[in-house]
Design goal:
Order of helices and strands: EEEEEEEHEEHEEEEHEEEEEEEEEEEEE
Number of helices: 3
Number of domains: 1
Strand order of the largest sheet: 2-26-25-24
Largest sheet: 4 strands, antiparallel
CATH class: Mainly Beta
Shape: globular
Number of strands: 26
Distance between the termini: 37 Å
Radius of gyration: 20 Å
Length: about 425
């Protein structure tokens, strides 16, 4: 839990309990409706690869971590891990878990919000700087774990409420690894995934801020036409320098009503972010509503469609951005980008990486994505930017895979929502 102040438990939570990330309640299922038609061959339901992967699973830690969310490898081989409800810890190679690191800002955990990604500065060995994303409580409110607040509250009332703030912060990890020092907020409005670009810039992805415009977590039943709403409140990718300043070539600097850090918009709930080392391009995977999870290649200034375009449906079963009497919503629209790949039904993608190690030669260039919905690790085989095969691994373990990272040894490391740290090697 947060280590810098009193933590009020509004909703009791134990290890293995996770607050849903904009997930559906009981009701209709995606399979109750006809699947959407892809825009091009291979955009969904790619075949399994010819040869199945053989892997060995080693449990490095089990039972101590509470809803771990992200991990980063320290230069000495230890792992820095965030926990959703507000703690950072360091795990040794023998599985020993440290006490919570001091100095982490207070976190408000509510629905899909909490303490999320952590990445090390490219020059961490020299400066010991790290960057992390989290949801901050409003001024005067103690850090806490809240129950869901989904409701039909009118927009004007929602906008009067002090809910909290999405943040990206920078801090220095002390030499002994026990505390964060010089914590500084760099950016507000996004709080999911972080990744450094090819030129040292920091990309940050944030979820749809539906509470701030006329929508719900399942999407509106009407088209959103105000461009400022789309660019400022739908899920977006931000791009900043490591000191929080705005790069001179960000795409919306000439638009006075668009937040200057905005790089792309029209996302829903980005839970995956990675740089393709073969091209330097930014890839993102995001949760759709009911169905319609997407993998996108992110381009500067581009609109990825949400909430006017989706391969999914509202949680009621109604089309997204169409009146309830309409049979289907729009899966394409001029001026919006198509996903490289989508899933229907959902897999609920989480952490993502492009594998580049030597331990799994057949995996080189593949995309590995954790799945929270199908409880597995997904491998996408690429031919250029086209998905040509999909393999689902570890499904027999029935664990929600939250984060996926490649270790310095070429092994693949996974975090699961039930508190496990796993290491994958060839079987």
């Amino acid at each position: 839990m947060a280590s810098n102040g009193k933590l009020t438990l509004v909703l009791l939570a134990t290890a293995g309990t996770v607050l849903g990330s904009m997930t559906a309640t009981a009701g209709p299922k995606a399979t109750d409706y006809p699947p959407p038609k892809p825009a091009f061959p291979g955009q969904t339901h790619a075949p399994a690869p010819r040869n199945a992967s053989a892997i060995k699973v080693e449990v490095l830690q089990s039972g101590t971590l509470n809803n771990p969310w992200s991990l980063a490898f320290l230069p000495d081989g230890r792992l820095l891990i965030t926990e959703l409800f507000g703690s950072m810890r360091i795990v040794r190679a023998d599985g020993v878990v440290s006490a919570p690191i001091e100095g982490v800002p207070g976190v408000k955990a509510i629905e899909g919000n909490g303490l999320h990604d952590v990445v090390l500065d490219p020059h961490f060995v020299d400066n010991r700087l790290l960057y992390f994303a989290y949801f901050a409580p409003p001024p005067g409110e103690d850090p806490a774990i809240w129950p869901s607040v989904h409701s039909n509250t009118p927009l004007a009332e929602r906008r009067r409420r002090s809910f909290g703030t999405e943040r990206v912060a920078r801090a220095r990890l002390s030499e002994d690894g026990k505390r964060l020092e010089d914590v500084r907020t760099l950016l507000e409005g996004v709080e999911r995934r972080l990744v450094f670009g090819a030129h040292g810039e920091l990309f940050a992805a944030g979820a749809d801020r539906y509470r701030l415009y006329d929508s719900t977590s399942g999407g509106p039943d009407h088209e959103i036409t105000d461009p400022d709403v789309l660019r400022n409140f739908t899920g977006r990718v931000s791009r900043i320098s490591t000191d929080g300043s705005i790069p001179a070539d960000n795409p919306f600097l000439a638009e006075p009503t668009v937040l200057p850090d905005t790089y792309s918009y029209g996302h829903r709930d980005p839970e995956s972010l990675a740089i393709n080392p073969a091209t330097g391009e930014l890839w993102l995977a995001e949760h759709g509503p009911m169905g319609g999870d997407e993998v996108n290649i992110v381009h500067a200034g581009a609109n990825y469609g949400w909430p006017n375009v989706s391969y999914g449906r509202q949680y009621t079963g109604a089309p997204v951005a169409r009146k309830a009497s309409a049979r289907e919503g729009a899966t394409s629209k001029p001026g919006t980008e198509q996903p490289v790949y989508f899933w229907y039904p959902d897999i609920a993608p989480s952490g993502m990486l492009f594998y580049s190690g030597e331990l799994f030669p057949s995996w080189k260039g593949s995309v590995l994505i954790g799945s929270l919905g199908e409880n597995c690790l997904v491998r996408l085989v690429l031919d250029g930017n086209r998905v040509v095969a999909e393999e689902r691994l570890l499904a027999d373990r029935k664990q929600r895979v939250r984060d996926v990272r490649q270790g310095p040894d070429g092994a693949v490391y996974l975090l699961t929502d039930d508190g496990m740290l796993l290491r994958l090697t060839p079987g």
